[in-house]
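User: quick one, sequence for these tokens?
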């Protein structure tokens, strides 16, 4: 399955660097703090304050990502790849975050083996939605209490989103040049001697 089948990429953030960043974002990893949107089955992906252009790919679950999806991103020219998943104890698909963590760790080992460095692949977490979904489906007086206990405040969520953006920016700045990227060869300018030789011919 191609990476593009997992979600539609979108470019976010201002221009200002030649390095490419790709972020896979789980569509269930950040619910609003007041009212869960799980009842409408609509993604609630956050707006990250990226300081550099980032290609975001929204995926149904981080656990759907396979090693080949991550490796293909690097093959296509990504300098830094970040996977943002639900917290492991509040994953919408129960084991999705655990599977994502194992696959990220596996690919990090491969990156070290081929000389790219595991630092080019990050795994970050946001609150998730499992408890919120349960609260929406619960009946009786316990539902409101469960919902209140499950919610991450808007302020806390905003702080965590800001930290992720900052950590990605810091990691990008610290990365050495990607050895897989070949520098562009300077365009060959025809000298006067070459022009004379061509005229003589």
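Assistant:
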């Amino acid at each position: 399955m191609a990476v593009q089948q997992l979600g539609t990429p979108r470019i976010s953030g201002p221009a200002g660097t030649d390095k490419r960043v790709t972020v896979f974002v789980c569509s269930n990893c950040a619910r609003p703090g007041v009212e869960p949107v799980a009842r409408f089955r609509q993604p609630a992906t956050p707006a990250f304050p990226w300081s550099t252009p980032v290609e975001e790919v929204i995926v149904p679950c981080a656990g759907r990502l396979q090693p080949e999806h991550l490796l293909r991103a690097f093959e296509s020219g990504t300098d830094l790849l970040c996977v943002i998943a639900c917290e492991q104890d509040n994953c919408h698909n129960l084991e999705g975050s655990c599977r994502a963590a194992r696959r990220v760790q596996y690919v990090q080992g491969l990156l070290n083996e081929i000389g790219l460095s595991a630092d080019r692949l990050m795994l970050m977490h946001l609150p998730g939605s499992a408890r919120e979904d349960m609260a929406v489906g619960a009946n009786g007086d316990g539902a409101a209490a469960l919902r209140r206990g499950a919610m991450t405040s808007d302020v806390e969520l905003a702080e965590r989103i800001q930290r992720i953006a900052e950590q990605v920016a810091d990691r990008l700045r610290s990365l050495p040049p990607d050895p897989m990227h070949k520098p562009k060869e300077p365009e060959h300018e025809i000298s006067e001697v070459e022009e004379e030789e061509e005229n003589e011919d």
